[in-house]
Each structure stands twice: as structure tokens, then as C-alpha cells.
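Session log. Operator J.P. requested a structure for one protein chain; no other inputs attached. Running the standard single-chain path with C-alpha cell output.
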Amino acid sequence: MADLGVTFAGLRLKNPLIAAAGPIAASVEMVNRLADAGVAAVVMKTGFRRVEYERWVGRKGIFPYKPVYKYQGLHRGRLLSLPTLAELPAEDMARRIEGMKRTGIPVIGSVMGLSVEGYRRSAQLLAEAGADAIEIDLCCTIPEFTTLYPMAGQNVNFHPKLYAKIVRAVKRAVSIPVGVKSTVSLYLYAKVLEGLVRSKVRNALPEFVTLVGQLDQNPGVDLDRLRPLVPHIPTFGWQGSLAPLTYSALATFSSTLGTDRPQLSASGGIRDHKGALTAIALGATTVQLQTAVLDKGVEVVSRILRSLEEHLDARGIVRLESIIGAASREYIPAMVLGRFMRERDVLFGRMYAALRAEGCNGCGLCEIVCTERAIAMVEGKPVVERAKCRACNLCVLKCAPGALYLENFALLEELAEHFKDTEEMRSFREFMGKERISWWDLIRLPGELKAWGLAP
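Structure written below.
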């Protein structure tokens, strides 16, 4: 039987499934049920300090805080709105930790603040109460935070210096592992990445980063071969559910950061063992569940674990940890993706769709889908006008009998291999791998950030 155990932020977990911050992790009773179902750890519902909670809501004596609604909709497993904030302040949430820890699984405290001191003190309260780790919530998108509280939730991701300041303050306040939960997208990842670099500069790199995808979607992984369905580029504008957004965030970060420091955790839309395996193959050490439990009950946890074991056993995979990041290794690091995309254009005219000697059934679909009008059916067979073909690969993907292919595709492979190990990536990884940051590193940082594409 495959070993599902993972080491995450210094904690040895029996499997990669964690209950995410939210209503399923708010009470001792619910955590007991989750532990019985098989989760390896739990992230408590996010808490403020009492004074900041009252400042946010705008009145005192509000506890327990009961908003008019918690969910806008849970339709076909898609949660449209879910406040993850606790109904009690951090001071009261801390009192629940002792009961939660009796389950025998690690308890991770989740904190948010309206100030640096709010984050620091909330983390300290939970650590003193016995939390095994802290997750800083820079993910929440409550509307009033966007306009009224620049230090709350995902707003912080737009300000790398503030990001690093909060992480450092929390790490100095506690002696347990610290992670950050961020909402990221193709348009925001560079800011979060710069925040991690600046945290490294302060010798305060978080032990883990929990990623919640937004906007851009990755199509996933071939789970038999553990390779991405579309290689090289980690993020796409595909339509679908929340899970592909999370896959995109994972692929973007793991292709640049790797999977060790900080470790990555996936949160958002994952509902079954295939989603969990996809996230792990794209670089996640752990997978956080919320909507799946709300939609299907705690029993979904045991079903996912059972299916994970069966999947790994059927393929002779002895240890789950051995496949962490297996698919992300094929991606070009997101940090140099822009340069790759520019240089890829030099292949125009040299790489083009072509017809194999056999296999075409004359359906004409390739001519229909070609957006460049580069294909014409002649006597029942496609003829490609090379000067028009942009090697978009659409006709190849749509050809059911596999009669079309891209001629000179090896040229693209060679270019991609070059960008997987550029001078910029080597210097970035060397920097992030240092045990301590020196004064010389600080002097060089502005120039390095520009070389890495993380600053104007």
C-alpha cells in the first residue's frame, strides 16, 4: 500500500489532506469529525483581535458575530461566496485550540489584521494557546477590505514591502512554522513573488505558501504520465471551475520557486482524488479542502484518501512525496516566460502543421477550425499553406485520427529547454537558497529585482 505521508512546514502528516480555513474548521466538534474522516491537519477559521474585529464591523458588543448570510450559493459544488472569518475574535478562537488538538492532528491557526500589530498579536495569541503553525490570511476578498483597509486580506499582495513586513513581524512573534495564504493570478504573481524575495531579504521567508488561484486556469495533468496536458506554459485563459485556477497558481509558483522553500499548499475547488493528484504533481505538498466537504459531507475525505491509495498502487508508486512537482518540471519558469513568448515568434514560418502519410479520414474539421485560413481541403485531403500557418496547434488537437502534426516541433522544444535554465533563473534560485542574506545582497537587490523582472 502506498505511503501517503508528507512532511509539511516541519510537520509530519499522515496524508496531504488538510481542512481549509472556513466553517468546517470553526468548532471542536467539526474538527473531531474531520479527524475521524482522515484529514491530516486543520486550519482554523480566520480570526482578528477583538479590537480590530470591532473596528471592522463598526460597533462593540458584537460577539458572536452572525452575518445575515454566509453563502450566496453552493450550486453543483461551486461555492459562490464564503466568508472564512470566525464569528469570534482571535482571543476566543484561541480557547478552542486545546479541544481541537485532542484529535491528535496538527492545528494551524489562521490570522488576519487591519494593521501589522494586528497580525502579530493574533498569531502570538494562537501560538501561545498551542497552535502547531500559523497561516497568514492574505486571501480574503471581503468587499469593504478592498476600499477601507489596505492591510487586510488580499490587498497586501499588491504591496511587496508590506507583505514582507507582516511576515517578518509574525515570524518574530512566534517560534512555530509560518505560512502565507494568497490569492494569485497571472497579473499578481510577480507582486507575491517579490513579497517572498523581500521576506527572504529580512531572513523571514515563510515555511509554506497556500495558493488560491484567480482568473487564469491551467488545464491540468495527464495523471498516468504525470505530465502537463499542455507543456511549457503554466497558465492559460481556459474556462472551467475553480480548481484549474489553483492549478495555474501552483504551476506558476513551482516552476519558479521549486517545491521546497517555501513549500506550496493548494486551496480552491479540489473535490476528488484526481484534483488532489493534479495539485500535487504541479507542486503542492498538501491540499486544502473546504467546498467539497460542505457539498458532500466529511465522508468525502475518506473517499479521496482511498482513491489516492488505489491510484498510486495501480501505478506502482510507493511514496506520494515522490511525485510532488513531477509535472511542474516541464514548465518554463514563469519569471522568464515573457521573454520565451517573444523569442518563440522567430519560429514563425519554420514550424507549421503537416499531414502524415496515413490516417486522414477527410472530415475537413481542420479547415473549419483554422483561424488563419491556412488549410484547404483538396480532393478530400488537407493542404497547408505554410506561409499562413502560425503553428497554433489547434488543428492538431482537433484531428481525431491524429493525422496532423507540427513539423519542426523540436525547434520549440529546444527553445523551451534553454529557458528552463537561464542565467536569471540560476541567480534567483541561488539567492533564494541562501541560508542568510548579507549586506552585499541588500546592496545588489534593486538591480537583481529588475534582472528577475520583479520590479520596473
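Operator note: DSSP finds 18 helices and 18 strands in the chain.
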